[in-house]
């Protein structure tokens, strides 16, 4: 890969300092040493932040290249300000072997506009019965550190305990899709409450999530291993996480942008765009999630970008696929929900969307401060720009965008990954 030299002038960092940044050889260099004829980008009025890191992306390749590919998904990621994404294992074939993980990493190197980090499955075929080759995936060239059966919960307690024990040896982490399959029955497709009753949709009680979180944090304490909770969506889960962190349990958690902004009311029109797992929750949960992300009980934002082809999504609500896209809109939605409301400053936003996710995933070259010598992973943002979201205006192959028609912050102006421009408005 070529590493063009670029001088970005007058960018404001998250701490308020205004600086020039020299991108040279894929790293940040001292701007005083910029060649006289260097290409410059005037960043007056813009902020420069470390490239964002997404702990939770569905790239759909291999297997569902009609919904997304590594190429299209990472183009969408770059447009969202991301320089790294963790690619969930629920592809076809499932990422449950060293070879499969290396294949995803190789696709990333070939087609990626961001670093593609394969997540390994916890169980073979995501079937929840036998542990996958966790050690082999870790020791492979893909160096898998994060394991998840996302889309499915590792609901067998003994298997979950063994998975946690296993990854402890190499400081791995089990990322759990917390959902009790008995409490959230096969027809569950909407938060259990007033709206599900009114619409006659299968209800999904909040405790289907929090009871698994409560079990898992105790297993993490028992095994002294690391647990990460995917897409936390309820106030009850937040309470459990707060308790677990106070006990010193090695647990981290993420929340999606959509669970920070949208509520159950979005499904009142039976539009399957708003059908997602876990479901959109009532406002009291949204407020609890915002508070938890602000105070650090929830450590990070994970998009759960879940692209779906039209023919899987355009069905009656009960029959449509679960999931919504999120990479391109994530920063704008988080700014709307957290910064505009005064809950989070830009410095903490960088922690939640870049440095902390990088630390959770063990990515040494991501989420680093914008200092000389560090990798040139940079996103330039216009903190004041807003625009009306149009689902058709996307680099993703899918259109299941829940923000279409809403006017939201639209901050990302340019993204640089290892010094290379991967997106420019
Ligand atoms: N979030 C979703 O609604 N769907 C995800 C699976 C998941 O994240 O559980 C998908 O793969 O489509
Ligand atoms: Zn999930
Ligand atoms: Zn997911």
Automatic annotation (TrEMBL):
Residues at which Zn(2+) 2 binds: 150, 177, 231
Residue ranges annotated for the Dihydroorotase catalytic domain, each copy included: 47-237
Keyword Zinc: yes
Cofactor binding annotation: Binds 2 Zn(2+) ions per subunit.
Annotated GO biological process: 'de novo' UMP biosynthetic process; purine nucleobase catabolic process
An annotated Gene Ontology molecular function: zinc ion binding
Key words of the record: Hydrolase, Metal-binding, Pyrimidine biosynthesis, Zinc
Residues that bind Zn(2+) 1: 56, 58, 150, 304
EC number from the UniProt entry: 3.5.2.3
Reactions performed catalytically: (S)-dihydroorotate + H2O = N-carbamoyl-L-aspartate + H(+)
A cellular-component GO term for this protein: cytoplasm
Gene3D superfamilies assigned: Metal-dependent hydrolases, Urease, subunit C, domain 1
Record keyword Zinc present: yes
Active-site residues per Swiss-Prot or TrEMBL entry: 304
Cofactor(s) this protein requires: Zn(2+)
Highest taxon of the lineage: Bacteria
Residues binding substrate, per UniProt: 58-60, 90, 277, 308, 322-323
Pathways per UniProt: Pyrimidine metabolism; UMP biosynthesis via de novo pathway; (S)-dihydroorotate from bicarbonate: step 3/3
SUPFAM superfamilies: Composite domain of metallo-dependent hydrolases, Metallo-dependent hydrolases
NCBIfam families for the chain: PRK09357.1-1, pyrC_multi
Functional note: Catalyzes the reversible cyclization of carbamoyl aspartate to dihydroorotate.
Record-given protein name: Dihydroorotase
Gene responsible for this protein: pyrC
